[in-house]
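Fold it.
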Amino acid sequence: MKISKIIFLIFIILFAIPANNIHAKRLPPPPIDIIWFGTRYTANLENQKMGYLYAYGPKTEFLLWEKKIYDVKYNPLLESDVQDVFISKIFPKGDILVVVNEKGDQYEVNPKTGDVLNQQKIPAWIIWTGFSLAGIAILFIIYKFLLKKIKL
């Protein structure tokens, strides 16, 4: 009886979730736009580059500076859109701007020059551990649900 449950679970994992039919297409990131002390800071607007922060002068909307805050390294074996990492938040903290990307990495930026003063990156093992635990939890829930339905 127990072996049939294990075989059933292996069958679900291997065949019921066909990985070759999964396509990673994502929506464009939401635009980030804040005004702080009269200067407008933007990211993710149409025709702007990923990982860049833009500052526009007060009233004139003249571009003061455009700075690359971080690089995104791509694995050529994976689709590029699943590897994109956009800016998700910009907020003031004291006399600096904090830029946060979708991975949770934080960059402290000089609002006058756009220079990155400090960065705090989340280690990759923390991110992958979270994904692994979430995946195991989802499989466990599916397994329990299917056991109730099939009554093995």
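The chain has two helices and eight strands.
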